[in-house]
């Protein structure tokens, strides 16, 4: 019952799009529905005592409301498809983060060396998500970001037919491992290891290319 009026508003928008003197274009309808969704998220946050409009630092308020992802954490299909514990990001927060992905969701990591770490997921295609790791400063403003996992463009003919997967792992010591490997043969192509420096930047510590004869089991590496 709490959001019954929002449901009615969505129905009204759909009726306006289907009839009346002015028919909405698909773009206009999508914008209206996004506005309703954003309002619904703000209402849910308000029930948790989070009022973004009244906060001096809405990023801090939203950050503090998020669940914490325990470490270590690593790639699995279930993790990137279901995003357990992730919460929707209101449009006001998206603008602060300068994030361009669709329908973003977020979760935090335990803080380290003064860096606040935020995992952001973006819906790239039909609920297939890419993942970005953000570091935030003392004012919760983004300092740096790193792509952990990206959805391949199915129309890109340059992609290897073996379909390389960008496996990721974040250890309890905050080492970030990125590994490109074949989802069909488990042959690794490239591994990069990042750490976080005192400036809260993601710093590449080492990068290693693998030969075609090197075979790895990513889930057993860390």
Can you offer a commentary on this structure?
It is a single chain. The chain is built from five helices and ten strands; from the N terminus they run αααβαβαββββββββ. By secondary structure, it is α+β, with helices and mostly antiparallel strands. A five-stranded antiparallel sheet has the order 1-7-8-9-10, with no helix packed on it. It is globular, with a radius of gyration of 20 Å. The N and C termini lie far apart (47 Å).
Strand order of the largest sheet: 1-7-8-9-10
Main sheet? 5 strands, antiparallel
Distance between the termini: 47 Å
| Stretches with pLDDT under 50, minimum 5 residues | 1-21, 29-34, 154-159
Residues in helices, as a percent range: 25-40%
Q: How many β strands by DSSP?
A: 10
Task: Briefly say what this structure is.
With 222 residues, the protein is an alpha+beta fold. The chain has helices spanning 4-18, 26-47, 58-65, 77-82, 91-97, and strands at 73-74, 87-88, 105-112, 115-123, 129-136, 142-149, 164-170, 176-182, 188-196, 202-209.
Fill in the keyword field for this structure.
single chain; 222 residues; alpha+beta; five-stranded antiparallel beta sheet; 5 helices; 26% helix; 31% strand; disordered N terminus
